[in-house]
Write a structure and sequence with these properties.
The chain is an all-alpha fold and about 550 residues long. It is built from 30 helices and no strands. The longest helix has 26 residues. It is found in: Nucleus.
């Protein structure tokens, strides 16, 4: 507590000196310095208010004898008054100085002086007598007149900027770059005012013809911060311009999304979908340059977490949202798929991008075999020494992980010999780093498990112990080994789809979930399955009800 008091006193002296230097932000240098420090000064005001509200007015004056000077300088600085919530916090601070029952003339004068400052803040602008008389004659209150004046000024400037954008190389009708830069600087403290939205949008959309960016970096940072905190609402086209013109803003938005996902409790995919859509990233990613940056950051997260299932699931949800936005924007691609996925086969990307709902169910198996052939060719027919291809092919494939889940379901529904193409597809999905020999071994193990599961599906009686026996066909003891993950997901699919699987599901999962890691894996599988069914519009009331019940029970245990 004592340390907080010392820190506040130090901050107080710093800001008092700053306000004296700014002197109503009368020069270009002080304007820039003011804009750079607005957020920090507002935070200082908050701390000051928290301290002032615990004291009576006499204690305030005793502890901060120059508080009136500091607040007055802040009240007469138009940049501070216009920024975010600073005006409101200043009013709170001033109210703390008022003597409710003044005991002497000095306290009465202080109250009168504070009332003058409050009046100034509430009117927001100083009015000349002539202007006041003029507005009254028109039947306007001064505050209404100036609000309308601000709105008209903003619309006029926005219109001029749009004309500037359309005029191209007609230098006689173009706005000078220095003026555009100045406008972006002046906008920094005004960004969160609703009436200023059209000007902010016009500045972002207006592209000059200068070799270097003319808008101020502080402007980009302030706009992006306001967008992230939902203090301003801009159309997606303006946000796209922001992120294309200022890469750090796009990177910060991605990091902000990661922070939201990490800081929240274990999220269901529907909630993750809400976070992703709310970020505007899928809509903006329809522009290939933005998609490539976003995808690269997902790639880094995947590599940093060693392929964590949670990251893979998030990539798949983002891809689902991105594809929806792409279809909504235009039924025909404005950009070639190669621009979105430059390191992989365009034919593979085209097939994966297909909506399974557009393919007759009877052709799903044939489509999966085609995907497997394309992937196998890309992975196993690599030039000697090339290691980029397999990872890039797998990275593309996990974006559309629903195809892997569909392959697992097709294997369980096949009464004949399990198709080798589907076995390879799943072995690659769960073990992209495995060599050809290791992947073949995984396929053999999975084929043996499938044989047991198909035999069990024909049996009149099922038991959880029989299912556990089938699971032991794998030789790996590590629950995170590719073969073990694949076998576990086949078993879970069996429990959801097999006629007798529902009867033993709870007992079987109790036997399987003997570690927290496996329990999380089962939760992730059930969540992804339900999410995919929702996206595909699959009607599975019996299996869907079971999956939701199991998911709810498991979440209460972790």
């Amino acid at each position: 507590m004592a340390q907080d008091s010392v820190d506040l006193s130090c901050d107080y002296q710093f800001w008092l000196q700053k306000l004296s230097v700014w002197d109503q932000a009368s020069t270009l240098e002080t304007q820039q310095d003011t804009c750079l420090h607005l957020a920090q000064f507002q935070e200082f005001l908050r701390k000051m208010y928290e301290a002032l509200k615990e004291m009576d007015s006499n204690t305030v004056i005793e502890r901060f004898p120059t508080i009136g000077q500091l607040l007055a300088k802040a009240c007469w600085n138009p940049f501070i008054l216009a920024y975010d919530e600073s005006q409101k916090i200043l009013i709170w601070c001033l109210c703390c100085l008022i003597n409710k029952e003044p005991q002497n003339s000095g306290q009465s004068k202080l109250n009168y002086w504070i009332q003058g400052l409050l009046s100034h803040i509430l009117s927001a602008l100083r009015f000349d007598k002539e202007v006041a008389l003029f507005t009254q004659g028109l039947g306007y209150a001064p505050i209404d007149y100036y609000a309308g004046l601000l709105k008209n000024m903003v619309l006029s400037l926005a219109s001029e900027l749009r004309e500037n954008h359309l005029n191209g190389f007609n230098t006689q009708r173009r706005m000078a770059p220095e003026r555009v830069a100045s406008l972006s600087r002046v906008c920094v403290p005004l960004i969160t005012l609703p009436d200023v939205d059209p000007l902010v949008e016009a500045l972002l959309v207006c592209h000059g013809h200068e070799p270097q960016e003319i808008l101020q970096q502080e402007f980009f940072e302030a706009v992006n911060e306001a967008v992230l905190l939902k203090k301003i609402s801009l159309p997606v086209s303006a946000v796209v311009c922001l992120w294309l013109r200022h890469l750090p803003s796009l990177e910060k938005t991605m990091l902000h999304l990661f922070e939201k996902l990490i800081s929240s409790e274990r999220n269901c995919l529907r909630r993750i979908e809400c976070f992703i859509k709310d970020s505007l990233l899928p809509q903006a990613a329809c522009h290939p340059a933005i998609f490539r940056v976003v995808d690269e950051m997902f790639r880094c997260a995947l590599l940093e977490t060693d392929g964590a299932p949670e990251v893979i699931a998030t990539i798949q949800v983002f891809t689902q949202c991105f594809v929806e936005a792409l279809e909504k924007e235009n039924k025909q691609l404005r950009f070639a798929l190669k621009t979105y996925f430059p390191y992989t086969s365009p034919s593979l990307a085209t097939v994966l991008l297909q909506d399974p709902q557009d393919i007759p169910q009877g052709q799903w198996l044939q489509t999966l075999k085609h995907i497997s052939e394309l992937l196998r060719k890309a992975v196993e027919d690599q030039t000697h020494g090339s290691c980029r291809g397999p990872f890039e092919s797998w990275f593309l494939f996990i974006h559309f992980g629903g195809w892997a889940e569909m392959a697992a379901e097709q294997l369980l529904m096949s009464a004949a010999e399990p198709p080798t193409a589907l076995l390879w597809l799943l072995a690659f999905y769960y073990g992209p780093c495995d060599g050809r020999q290791q992947r073949t071994q995984t396929m053999v193990q999975v084929k043996a498990v499938l044989g047991h599961l198909l035999a069990m599906s024909r049996s009149t009686t099922l038991s959880a112990q029989d299912l556990q026996t089938a699971a032991r066909q794998g030789t790996d003891t590590d629950p995170r080994a590719p073969a073990q993950q694949l076998i576990r997901h086949l078993l879970l699919n069996f429990l959801l789809w097999a006629p007798g699987g529902h009867m033993i599901a709870r007992d079987a999962i109790t036997l399987m979930a003997h570690t927290a890691e496996i329990t999380h894996d089962i939760i992730g599988f059930l969540d992804q399955t339900l999410y995919r069914w929702d996206c595909l519009g699959i009607e599975s009331p019996r299996s869907g009800k079971l999956a939701r019940e199991l998911l709810k029970e498991l979440r209460t245990q972790v």
